[in-house]
Write a structure and sequence with these properties.
By secondary structure, the protein is α/β, with parallel strands linked by helices. Helices cover about 45% and strands about 20% of the residues. The chain contains 14 helices and 16 strands. The longest helix is centred in the middle third of the chain and has 24 residues. It is globular, with a radius of gyration of 22 Å. It binds NADP nicotinamide-adenine-dinucleotide phosphate (NAP) and magnesium ion.
Length: about 400
């Protein structure tokens, strides 16, 4: 069989631990036999990040800006324990943080639904996509601890004029924090969300807490409203989808009662928390896809979970593992489909769609990894738990 040709390389960002092992197998077993795979390879494994003083992460993000589509393996964000384990020169920053800052994007997370894995909320028949703003707020905050004293917020404008506000006059120990965001980043977030909702033809709900945070969250609300009114209202009406702004408490209540099929735009912290809640409620963290979309239309696909350290240590000891590769496979198919769309390669798109179908039907036929076998329920089928590699081989058979 002739392999499917590609025109432009994908930016390939390799990663760490168990997901690095899956990464290699996915390529060998599911992609390379069928696609003449073109990638520009960046090794974001922690050892190479350390060796290159993290330059490789910056280079991979810049390559993504150049080519437009990247696929990323999960990576370790170093902490104290990793400093010793990998004998690191420095506690390098989260690669995802670095990449998001360069692409200035919004992260969209969507669950992969399969017949046999029922969401904990039985009415959720369709995916709920979380759109998470990926810049600022508590992730770029300045905070401190005090044993007592007055905390003030001092703002110095361009002319050197100072405005002071008392945060709190401490009468004992306490904590303070100051955070920021920029109109530019909020506007990019808004446009990414409106574009994404239109591309998947789903309504967009945006939530903050502007009744409490009147100026800060109020700014988000206003920027979204202005951009909607001026740039997207007509397009939404034409597509027959709605844009709604409401309080986050209200969305939480509405989401639980919904049938799914919504894009839910969240501020940075809300999106971090709510996406884990949704992933779990849909069945498994390993069934959540993630794509970073920049306001200029650059895409980076990944799985939402981490490097699955616990399984990796077992793998190193030669013990059997049953690690779910579905979200990582879907990161590859997402990237291949997008590359196919941009380069007008219908065969590449069709291949990616078939690989997704083969993956889902393998599970629906009863063959899956341990995390899913534990929750799978379908009449007449007793789930078979497969090892990490056997699961990929079973998909290949099906494909
Ligand atoms: P994790 O790798 O997501 O794993 C946490 C647990 O969730 C696993 O021990 C496993 O549970 C289950 N799990 C997650 N993915 C699974 C999969 N594909 N198949 C089966 N089970 C899965 O999170 P973590 O252990 O907190 O973090 C490990 C490393 O990943 C850290 O160094 C962190 O910095 C990094 N991380 C990277 C990213 C990213 O690159 N996007 C995201 C998050 C974390 P059981 O052990 O019970 O089987
Ligand atoms: Mg989280």
């Amino acid at each position: 069989m002739e392999k499917i040709k590609m025109l432009t390389p994908l930016v390939e960002m390799d990663g760490d631990e168990m997901t690095r092992i899956l990464w290699k197998w996915i390529k060998e077993i599911l992609i390379e036999p069928y696609v003449d795979l073109k990638t520009e390879y960046y090794d974001l494994g922690l050892e190479n990040r350390d060796k290159t003083n993290d330059k490789v992460t910056v280079d991979s993000a810049n390559a993504t800006l150049k080519y437009g589509v990247a696929v990323k393996c999960a990576t370790i964000t170093p902490n104290n324990q990793r400093m010793t384990e990998y004998n690191l020169k420095e506690m390098w920053k989260s690669p995802n943080g670095t990449i998001r800052a360069i692409l200035d994007g919004t992260v969209f997370r969507a669950p992969i639904l399969v017949n046999g894995i029922t969401p904990y909320i039985p009415t959720w028949k369709n995916p709920i996509v979380i759109a998470r703003h990926a810049y600022g707020d508590v992730y770029k905050a300045v905070d401190g601890f005090t044993k007592g004293g007055k905390a003030e917020l001092v703002f110095t404008d361009e002319n050197g004029q100072e405005v002071r506000k008392i945060v709190h006059d401490f009468n004992g120990e306490g904590v303070v924090m100051a955070m920021h965001n920029t109109d530019k980043s909020i506007a990019s977030f808004a446009r990414s969300c409106f574009n994404y909702a239109l591309s998947v033809n789903l309504p967009l709900w945006f939530s903050t807490k502007d009744t409490i945070s009147k100026i800060y969250d109020g700014r988000f609300k206003k920027i979204f409203a202005d951009i909607y009114e001026n740039e997207y209202k007509e397009k939404f009406e034409k597509a027959g989808i709605e844009y709604m702004y409401t309080l986050i408490d209200d969305v939480v209540a509405r989401i639980i009662r919904s049938n799914g099929g919504i894009v839910w735009a969240c501020k940075n912290y809300d999106g971090d928390v709510m996406s884990d809640m949704l992933a779990t409620a849909y069945g498994s963290l390993a069934m959540m896809t993630s794509v970073l979309v920049s306001p200029t239309g650059v895409y980076e696909y990944e799985a939402a979970h981490g490097t699955v350290t616990r399984h990796y240590y077992k793998y190193l000891k030669g013990e059997p593992t049953s690690t779910n590769s579905v979200a990582t496979i879907f990161a590859w198919t997402g990237a291949l489909k997008k590359r196919g769309e941009l380069d007008n390669l219908p065969d590449l798109i069709a291949f990616a769609e078939r690989l997704e179908k083969a993956t889902l039907s393998t599970i629906e036929n009863g063959y899956m990894t341990g995390d899913l076998a534990a929750i799978f329920k379908k009449d007449g089928i007793t789930p078979v738990k497969l090892g990490s590699k056997e699961f990929l081989q079973k998909i290949a058979e099906n494909l």
